[in-house]
Amino acid sequence: MYYPSGLRKSIAIARKDLRVYYGKGPVVIFGILLPFFFFFSFLIGRDMPPLSLISGLGGMAIWFTATSISPVIAPMETRTRTLERLVSMPISVTEMLMGDILASMTMGAVLSAIPISIIAVILNLNPVNFFPLALGIVVASFCFSTIGVLMSALPTDTPSDVIMLALLIKFPVVFVSGVFIPAGNLPGWGKLISRFSPLTYFVKLVRVSFGGTGQPWMNLGILTLFAVFFLLFAVFVHKRTLPKRL
Amino acid sequence: MSAIVSKKLVKEFDGLRAVNEVSFRVDEGEIFGFLGPNGAGKTTTTRMITGVIKPNSGTATIEGIDVVQNPTAAKEKIGIAPEEANAYLDLTARGNMNLAGEIYGVPSGQLRSKVNDLLDTFGLLDRADTKVKGFSKGMKQRLILAMALINDPGILFLDEPTAGLDVESQRLIKDRIKELNEEGKTIFLTTHDIAEADRLCDRVAVINRGRIAAIDSPERLKTTIQSTQSVLVSFSSMNFDPEDLRVLEGVEELEKEGDKWRLYGPEPGAIIEEVVSFVREEGLKILSLNTSGPSLEETFTHLTKNQS
Q1: How many domains does chain A have?
Q2: So what's the ipTM on this one?
Q3: pLDDT in tens, B198-212
Q4: Owning domain of residue A209
């Protein structure tokens, strides 16, 4: 298959990421196990409405899986000195980051689509807006992957440094994004902060897609804007911090 | 056109000047050695020329392409085997080669045969589908070199390609470097191994404290330190005062080496004449007599010591 040169390079990076990092500890622990247990520890003993359940679980799954792989790639590559090898090849920072994002996006989209589908079947929920939901999973995975890549701009060769930073960001975002409590039920300051969280719009999109009230395309549009913003910001920051890794 | 041109390259880290106005040219088809003690600025200079880091000032071009202005196009012209770089341990040798090939834009239809050819050349074809984490250091270094050749570059940057390798890997890599040069490739060889540079390089540059101390062919560089030219002589008897040798005309320094004497001076021929006269006067015989110039190692030490 023919790809434009830049895309072919990014796909090569993504394929490498999936092969090299997919089975690494941080990915499995922070991307799959942690959100799973975190969510069910909150769920047990509560009588949550199905819409809150599926949107919360979907939001949690995509947020944690899409931000699990992308933050650790850069510090791991710095430590193993594979970054120097990559940087010496004819590939731009943007193409390299796009590869990391593509890998993370693939993980996020696949690993969040599965639990959303399972819960939908168990709760007998049918998506009334299937296309925006499917597109939303892809766009949200992309957006959250760019946030993960942005976190990895910290110029360190120690993955745990980035994981600590990521945890400081990831957990508060979950609490203000309507994952456990619908954003509309948050206090005033919580509602204000939730508007600046892209996860809020994905959670809303899932609710709307399964019959909740709201505008699916508007939420998708806002998610797309967040994705573009974080991509540009991540590229900008990485260009500045990359020399410090070498 | 020169293959590589470095013009007044400067790099500072936290206000400290690691590379100070480094300029040189490397001609097409040349093996150019880049020597210097640890921390002299070799790797930083190489990283600037290969577009890995940006200089604070100065320019570098690869086949006329400005590395700072157009790093991707410049990198497409070269192959690099950096010392401080690794292949992906969790990928197979073939996986690493494919990754490099895709990034260098090798057409998909040619990639497999190219990968097989290169792995075969470097003795890795039978381990092509083995993960690199099981490779020895020599095998990893051979893989890095094979990856550097995936785009069939005209210019090859090799950073300490044989450092710490077993004899077999060293020989294979050195032979391959010679063959690649014979095929017309320009080789930029950064090395600590002065004997290696002496054997392989057409010219060498010596860098010390971020500045170029000298650039010339190894043989011409050796002649720059005349004082280390010497005459090594052994006599039939040691029944004479060695200080008589020290005062012979043209002798600047005298050293005892086992049962022989080494007489240093800028003109070995004149020293030999003096020694012959001395032997006649003392009634001695010469058992052996050799002249020797400085080694590249002595030249290197001389050049870097003078700048310290």
Answers
A1: 1
A2: 0.86
A3: 888 999 998 888 898
A4: 23-245
